[in-house]
Design goal:
- The chain is an alpha+beta fold.
- It is built from three helices and six strands, in the order H-E-E-H-E-E-E-E-H.
- The protein has a six-stranded mixed sheet with strand order 2-1-6-5-4-3.
- The chain is globular and about 40 Å long.
């Protein structure tokens, strides 16, 4: 149960900071692995710095986010995040993102996300 509580606490810190767009980085491991945003690329972005760069792009598009559902099982978790997007072209949408997490050694160690990449790519410049 302790691992479950620890993972949940890490996720709460992450999402509280992520919603404010600050302070979430503190719970990310240095060798963090991220997969998502492009279904044609299965190789992860590796490292905390690489993930921060991914989030810089993503953060420009979302104006608000909230956790809709969180399931934690030991060091594994699934979160459904709900996001309000406003794209540079003026398009506004609300969408859910499925986020699969793994924690390790007291940090969030990996994330794989699933969402509507086509809508995202059509509305935000690269």
């Amino acid at each position: 149960m302790e691992n479950s509580t620890s993972t949940q606490q890490l996720l709460e810190i992450y999402y509280n900071g992520f919603a404010k767009k600050e302070g979430w980085e503190q719970v990310i491991s240095d060798d963090f692995r991220f997969i998502g945003g492009d279904m044609t690329k299965s190789a992860p972005a590796v490292g905390k710095a690489a993930y921060i760069e991914v989030i810089k792009r993503f953060s420009r598009a979302f104006k608000a986010m909230r956790v809709k559902e969180m399931i934690v099982d030991g060091e594994n978790a699934c979160v459904i995040g709900n996001y309000d997007f406003i794209f540079p072209n003026g398009t506004s949408i609300n969408g859910d993102v499925a986020e699969i997490w793994k924690a390790k050694n007291g940090k969030l160690d990996s994330l794989t996300i699933f969402f509507d990449t086509l809508t995202f790519d059509r509305n935000i410049p690269k």
